[in-house]
């Protein structure tokens, strides 16, 4: 028997048909949908008079457009486009018999947060969503693809996806993470090494002691950004931690089905000697807390570094870096630690989970948000929010000077009222720092929740390890 990678195993278990050119029809176990990329897909079905093939394997939740002010529970959504998209999702879910968590349901939240939280995300599954950060679910050893709207329609109609197999890449992070270094620093460091195109054509499996040592939340943070490194998906082999996380969640298997599931899940790891087309290996001790300085997630450096000179790059990156620095309002040679910020955003599907909020609370212990800094915390789901309130974290963060908001994508992207003004600079725990991502003219520095908290305290990018 040939040795297989985890990716090979999940793939093989889901191929319904393989054409001569290698194009496959893949069975899909779980289909998550949100308001931005599903409307046309449902409409396509309606026009063709087709039902959703497996409505019980399809879940819908509004996240991108929802306002996150606490008043939303009682008020109308004022932006007509957002309101239309959310109303449409609600109607589509009702018409097609799809499970739907409405705006003010405590289970509402960012689609990639609620999947794992509800136990919809399970090891060995194929999961799709019309959203690039679907890679997040790979943290459970699920093959999770982001798909486009026409593919959403295809999956709704057939519960299958047309795919060609990607190549296998192994990213192995050995050793122990230094103090103050987190999952976000790992994933940004990997992208710094490979570039945003380094993963193109691959599915990345993350392994090694540093990955194994991460909590499920941390593993989700790592896989979430696989897509920013160009990969088709990210994967981490499930283990005891994974099983413990899934156990007892609303949609997790129960009783005998649970025992059966566990027996299968335990087989989900790459075999000894399995072939990878590319291997990247490095030691966790190399990783420092990092921040981005430019307008691509690969523009990342340790916090101790200075803003690079465009001349230090090669080829097209020279002009890209020049443009980035101009947009970001930065000068080569400037210490990253000297960069002053106006806003701190803690949230998104990268870092909007309970552990992230605990991390922020830990850094804020005995400290306050600096005067004049707008610091917002947007829990990734209503349940994360409720848990943080129950743990007393929410009150501590409010007392420290943070805004405590309702769940949604929020300032991760400018599709709702939470936006930067032109020229405003934000320390953000999200995953994309593209031009205009957080609002037109807004400037984004990506970093970990601990580093974002440190920036909130000092009003500039700060090494969390040096906070006095
Ligand atoms: C709006 C949606 C299609 C988009 C994505 O696919 O990733 C968004 O979630 C993002 O993060 O940019
Ligand atoms: S939180 Fe950000 S990255 Fe995640 S799905 Fe929403 S917009 Fe996309």
TrEMBL record:
Residues binding [4Fe-4S] cluster:
349, 409, 412
Provide the catalytic activity annotation. Answer: (2R,3S)-3-isopropylmalate = (2S)-2-isopropylmalate
Q: Which InterPro entries match?
A: 3-IsopropMal_deHydase_lsu, Acnase/IPM_dHydase_lsu_aba_1/3, Acoase/IPM_deHydtase_lsu_aba, Aconitase_4Fe-4S_BS, Aconitase_4Fe-4S_dom, IPM_dehydratase_rel_enz, IPMI_cat
Q: Which residues form the Aconitase/3-isopropylmalate dehydratase large subunit alpha/beta/alpha domain?
A: 8-459
Q: How is the cofactor bound?
A: Binds 1 [4Fe-4S] cluster per subunit.
Q: Name one GO biological process term.
A: L-leucine biosynthetic process
Q: Which UniProt keywords apply?
A: 4Fe-4S, Amino-acid biosynthesis, Branched-chain amino acid biosynthesis, Iron, Iron-sulfur, Leucine biosynthesis, Lyase, Metal-binding
Q: What is its EC number?
A: 4.2.1.33
Q: Name one GO molecular function term.
A: 3-isopropylmalate dehydratase activity
Establish whether keyword Protein biosynthesis is in the entry.
no
Q: Pathway listed for it? A: Amino-acid biosynthesis; L-leucine biosynthesis; L-leucine from 3-methyl-2-oxobutanoate: step 2/4
For activity, the cofactor(s) needed are: [4Fe-4S] cluster
- Note the subunit structure: Heterodimer of LeuC and LeuD.
For this chain, the family text in UniProt reads: Belongs to the aconitase/IPM isomerase family. LeuC type 1 subfamily.
Chain's role: Catalyzes the isomerization between 2-isopropylmalate and 3-isopropylmalate, via the formation of 2-isopropylmaleate.
Which PANTHER family does the UniProt entry name for this protein? Answer: 3-ISOPROPYLMALATE DEHYDRATASE (PTHR43822:SF9), HOMOACONITASE, MITOCHONDRIAL-RELATED (PTHR43822)
Q: What is this protein called?
A: 3-isopropylmalate dehydratase large subunit
Q: Which organism is it from?
A: Albimonas pacifica
The upper taxonomy is:
Bacteria, Pseudomonadati, Pseudomonadota, Alphaproteobacteria, Rhodobacterales
